[in-house]
Amino acid sequence: MSTESTPSGDSPLVEAPADTVAGEVVLRLTDVVKTFPGVRALDGVQLEVRAGEVHCLLGQNGAGKSTLIKVLAGVHRPDSGQVQWRGEPAHFANPQAAMRAGIATIYQELDLVEDLSVAENAFLGHEPKVAGFVRRGHMARRTREILSRLGHGEIPPGRMVRALPAAGKQVVSMARALSHEARLIIMDEPSAVLAHDEVDNLFRIIRELTAQGIAVIYISHRMEEIREIGDRVTVLKDGRTTAANLPARETPTRDLVARMTGRNIEYVFPDRPTAPAAAADLLRVEGLSRTGEFADVSLSVRPGEIVGIAGLVGSGRSELLETIYGARRAESGTVRMGGRPLRPGSVGAAVRAGMGMAPEERKSQALLLGEPIHRNVTLATFTRYARLGFTNAGRERAEAERIADELQLRPNDVRRAVRTLSGGNQQKVVVGRWLLGDTRLLLLDEPTRGVDVGARAELYRVIRGLAAQGVGVLLVSSEVPEVLGLADRVLVMREGRMVREAPAGELDENTVLDLVMAGSLMEGAPA
Amino acid sequence: MSESTGTATPDRPADLPAQSPPVDPAVTASLKEKPRAGGLSFWQGDGGEGAKRNLGLIGVLVVLVVIGAATRWDLYSNPDWVWGNTLTILKLASVVGVVTVGMTFVIIGGGIDLSVGAIVALAGVWATTLATQSYGAGGMIFTAIVVGTAVGVVNGVLISYGRLVAFIATLAMMVAARGLAAQISGKQTQVSNNSFINGIASTDVLGIPLLVYILAAVVAAGWVLLNRTTFGRRTVAVGGNPEAARLAGINVRRHTLLLYALSGLCCGIAAIMLTAQANSAQAAMANLYELDAIAAAIIGGTLLSGGRGTIVGSLLGVLIFSTITNLFAINGLSTEAQNMVKGGIIVGAVLIQQVQFRSVTQFFGRQKATTSG
Amino acid sequence: MTQPRDLSRRRMLFGSAAVGAGVLLAGCTSNESTPTAAQTKAADNSGGGNAAPGKKVTVGFSAPAADHGWIAAITNNAKAQAGAYSDVDFKTVEAGADAAAQRAALSTLVAQKPDVIVVLPHDGKELNAFGLEAMKAGIPVVNLDRAFPDALAYRLQISGDNYGMGVAAANYIVAQLKAKGVSAPIIGEIPGIDSLELTQQRSKGFADTLAAAGFKVANRRPAEFTADSGQQAATGLFQALPKIDAVWNHDDDQGIGVLAAVNQANRKEFFMVGGAGSKKAMEDIQADNTVLKATVTYSPSMASSAISLARLIAQGKGMSDLVELQVPKVIVLASETITKENASSYLKLGF
């Protein structure tokens, strides 16, 4: 067993000096915990937001940002921990309660009613009324006021929201927040749907809001935006706050990314076996492209080789994996298994050729949550055990139990519903599915996300073990140490293109981080 | 992983059949929460939960029979009458029961089939035209089954390859198939003059009506198909999580098509049974069978969003409805009151299931919080 | 793996079987039934009376799209009767699925300026306004069966007698039971769709007349005018009443199912009266080999009469047997009781 550590250090929570932001603290979260069956979504979150600041929330997919937003918006109630709102302990029973208290949330997929007017959307649920009748004139007037306060007096309050462009819809969402006299506005990746000049306009609006003393929680993956608009940054990873109240402009980008992706646990990797003998390519991908996702990607995997793809969210890595697997249809390029081209866009063909995939979203893409473990384990192979269309329950159960033992599944009762398992054990079920049958190439997309330490080590052991048996592995992970520790060869992907390929031994974490973040992410970062 | 509870799944190439409108996965997750107690019990084995729910349904049946006996003791005191009445209830349930078996598969597979009543009518009418009747009983049975299956295949193609929402595709088929049936029949009641066909409804074998054997055979075949074959496993997978099924290499579209074809086949069989019972067929026959079948499947514990359901539960659902109809008939009560009670039973059954899982999720949440918090 | 070849062969076999089945089935939709000619009144020229060709007139006609044999017979009869007159130009419009559709169809009919319009409305109340309008525009309206509430909305109203049907059925049953000397008979009733006013009128006539004789209905299981619903309603009735003396079934179409249920339950201890007067029911009564012993009419032949009278109205003639020079304003057909004795004379009116 060897351990590989990360260089980014394990500094405790960084508290910014109190004077960086002047306003009073409006929101304070202490040790907030929220669990769902099988997963601990929030595992001790600290957050402090002051009036008039733009507080950026950073974290990878799965870090707990969405759950946190929903706790603040009154959608979820925390299991433990404290939420203090304007000095008082707050319990928001429902979204309306949070709204009334002055917390407005603008979700990424805007929750507007497309076939109502701008004014009706702005005042949805709290229309000004007289004797049960909506005061339409008054509502339109108020909406116009709010829109001009947002610098968008040109949007007619009577226009159908459907007819507005994305940026206009976002303005309407903000108008709704202001119609509630919001003191805190949460924006979930507001720039994702906007063009460049529209982002400038968004920032202008945000500045106007904060000048009026309104606090903004701003969620984005784009570092340059955080630099431009943010005051302080809090970083989440695996449901925990890994850094709080960092100054948004001064903190080096590498520090931020390391806190998002880097370890807060020890990575324990099994010994790397001697380099696999040169053999014919098992998988050969050439010139694979999908517009807007990735372009001209070529790669290969040999039997027994683990190839890791490092890249951030949005680099096109998951889309690439799904395209190789046939779950998406390539626009150009070829995928060959053992020299034979695969029918594009056919998962069945890929599986028959010996591919298996553990997709990124376990619950929505891989598991039948209500079904027992053994049915999930045999989901891709039950047909093989069947005779004349009749399933062989005994054989299936036996195979599933063998896998459960091999992966040290806990609890080790294959009749349990998968939903009752922890995230790590659920992932073992997904990976275990492909240990059955004759899988020759395993595609793993973020195999250890939301997985606890023990299960991680077991998964690493299993992946290595598979490679030792000659199975090729193509691994996608945003955790750079994981890619470096597990893979024989590393491909770095950025903005849909492969930017570097090298044996794992020739790369260190800093080099990969720099490659991953190169370009826009590095801009504005102090050298 | 936690965020997957809140964020929508990323855009996929749209080659999945349109199933249900996008919903918050967190909501679906909680809806699919099964009643499950803390410790393991033998109920948690294969189909154990279904068995538990089915016991509840049998309890409802017993209550209905007790009410019947209490209100019409003059009838129930005669064992011959009770036996005859039981067979009558089974016969009453037989046609809808066969349709419900097909419907249960479609719903478990994540779909819905609103056209079943219309398919029964179309298959029945087509099988009783003078031209078809000239081929004899064999020709009539062949026609009903092929017509039913073919209409099901059309449904399936529209839904899985045409990517229409099942609700809309089968709603359209419901209207169109009745229209075609009216066209073929010239809006007349077509009398069946075939004594073999008519005999299906009046023949007893070993004291039990042939219709009951047919129902039993279809239910048994459905049970085996769902629980013992790869087809059944695919059905549960496709309905429970179509994306997971697809990524496990299952051909979701083809399977969806087959599910609707199966439903059509069941309708074809039911058409023969209903034609035999009524000695005739007409475009307006099997009126609202789709609602009876859906309601029976739902109170039988089939999840409307797919992925869970049992054949036995659906059969019990049908039996409960036909027992209620019988109960109201023997007491001479109006059908209005009967329909209100049926509505109440549907709501009650669903409410009980919801209350069960709500208390279980709460229990589960607390347990998590205390053990690891 | 030899599977792919196997599969494709299987597919081909299945494909050709499917095509074969399709061809076979397409031939199975024909229904050479022989309707209606019997229900018209031949244009008998020999008498030289009203049937003699007169002024050429245009008769417009509208009835709901039928999903039921009775309404189908109405349309067929109207067409056939019009065809029997050389001086009638018959214009019919499909009335669609509801009152609104029928209103639209009727306005296109009015635009063609017919001399008279015969209407079987979806709903008399809803189409009353149309009747008023057409009458105001000088087009006489013959209101068939479902009544316009407003007397100004029609020139002639011709309808069946729903209450009278119930009376006639009850009278027959009472007479039979009295003759047999049954003192406290068990009487069952199988009405049609229970929410319809016509069903309620029929049931009221039935109940009122039975009550006058000191009898009452023991159980009442409504059907839906279809054979399969009739079979189920009858099955329920038989379970509830282990012994029955008489049954009135409102509708001969659903009666096909009721008779099937009688066979299936093997119940022969009672006699049954039907309703409406279908050809099949009349044949069964004539053959006297089922429990069906009588039926009370509500005949679609009224459509034929309506066309004849519409023609007379347009030509300004009266009914030759009456003293008046014009056609009367209201005609209510008596519900007649068809039994084995008179079935042969009614058979041509069966639908």
Automatic annotation (TrEMBL), chain A:
Q: Which GO terms describe its molecular function?
A: ATP binding; ATP hydrolysis activity
Name a single GO cellular component: plasma membrane
Membrane topology recorded in Swiss-Prot or TrEMBL: Peripheral membrane protein
Q: Which UniProt keywords apply?
A: ATP-binding, Cell membrane, Membrane, Nucleotide-binding, Repeat, Translocase, Transport
Query: Record's InterPro entries?
Result: AAA+_ATPase, ABC_carbohydrate_import_ATPase, ABC_transporter-like_ATP-bd, ABC_transporter-like_CS, P-loop_NTPase
Q: What single Pfam family name could you report for this chain, choosing any that match?
A: ABC_tran
Q: What is its main location?
A: membrane
Superkingdom in the source lineage: Bacteria
Q: Where in the cell is it found?
A: Cell membrane
Q: Where is the ABC transporter domain?
A: 27-263, 277-520
PANTHER family, per the entry: CARBOHYDRATE TRANSPORT ATP-BINDING PROTEIN MG119-RELATED (PTHR43790), GALACTOFURANOSE TRANSPORTER ATP-BINDING PROTEIN YTFR (PTHR43790:SF9)
Q: Supply the name of the protein.
A: Monosaccharide ABC transporter ATP-binding protein, CUT2 family
What is the species of this protein? Micromonospora matsumotoense
From the broadest rank down, the organism's phylogenetic lineage runs: Bacteria, Bacillati, Actinomycetota, Actinomycetes, Micromonosporales
UniProtKB/TrEMBL annotation, chain B:
For this record, the Gene Ontology CC terms, alphabetical, are: plasma membrane
Would I find Transferase among this entry's keywords? no
Q: Which UniProt keywords are given for this protein, alphabetically ordered? A: Cell membrane, Membrane, Transmembrane, Transmembrane helix
Residue ranges crossing the lipid bilayer per the database entry: 55-75, 87-108, 114-132, 139-158, 164-184, 205-226, 257-276, 311-330
Specify the protein's topology with respect to the membrane.
Multi-pass membrane protein
Give the molecular function GO annotations: transmembrane transporter activity
The UniProt entry, under CDD domains, shows: TM_PBP1_transp_AraH_like
- Subcellular localization(s) per the UniProt record: Cell membrane
Q: Where is this region: Disordered?
A: 1-28
Instruction: Supply the name of the protein.
Output: Ribose transport system permease protein
Phylogenetic placement of the source organism: Bacteria, Bacillati, Actinomycetota, Actinomycetes, Micromonosporales
UniProtKB/TrEMBL annotation, chain C:
Keyword Ribonucleoprotein listed: no
Where does the UniProt entry say this protein principally localizes?
A: other
All copies of the Periplasmic binding protein domain together span: 59-317
Q: Where is the signal peptide?
A: 1-26
Q: What SUPFAM superfamilies does the annotation carry? A: Periplasmic binding protein-like I
The entry assigns this protein to a family as follows:
Belongs to the bacterial solute-binding protein 2 family.
Its name, as the record gives it, is Monosaccharide ABC transporter substrate-binding protein, CUT2 family
Q: What is the protein's species of origin?
A: Micromonospora matsumotoense
